Amino acid sequence: MSMKKQLSVPLLSLAALLMTQQAFAVQTCAQKEAALNEQLGYAQQHNNSHQVAGLKKALAEVKENCTASSVRQDAEQDVEKLQRKLKEKQQDLRESQQDLQKATAKNNAEKMAKYRSKIADKQADIKKITTELHQKQQGLRALN
């Protein structure tokens, strides 16, 4: 593998991680503009006219409509949405745990394996949602 390819894979992974963390964070209007300008510059460098047009439109909308109160309101809505999502996943987890108990009582190995897998998936989802929720709540507190 060439040196360029060896460097590009970790850099892309790092960029993806940072973008994911930024997606969880509450962004101020200035941060939104800066992120859009950065993406716009990248799209222009790569002659992606459709992306440039979309980013210019998004940038104009942010400049026109973004206020401190709209950022706070969006953050509050994000927190509420994540809280609902977390409750739903927790209920799904409880149902799968009950199904596992029934399968265990019947000694049905196939269904036991199926429900254990579902439980593991739901626990991973809950952990991810909880992390995102905590980050959004911290961002919201920082706005107040």
Overview of this protein structure:
The protein is 90% helix and 0% strand. It is mainly alpha-helical and 144 residues long. The protein has helices at 3-24, 29-45, 49-65, 68-105, 109-143.
Rg calculated over all Cα atoms = 21 Å
Mean pLDDT: 87
Helix segment count? 5
How much helical structure, as a percent, in the residues?
over 70%
Shape: elongated
* CATH C-level name of the largest domain: Mainly Alpha
Share in β-strands: under 5%
Distance between the termini: 50 Å
Give the secondary structure arrangement, pairings included.
Layout lengths: L2 H22 L4 H17 L3 H17 L2 H38 L3 H35 L1
Helix pairs in contact: 2-3, 4-5
Keywords:
144 residues, mainly alpha, Methane Monooxygenase Hydroxylase, Chain G, domain 1, 2 domains, disordered N terminus
Describe what is shown at a glance:
The chain has 144 residues and is mainly alpha-helical.
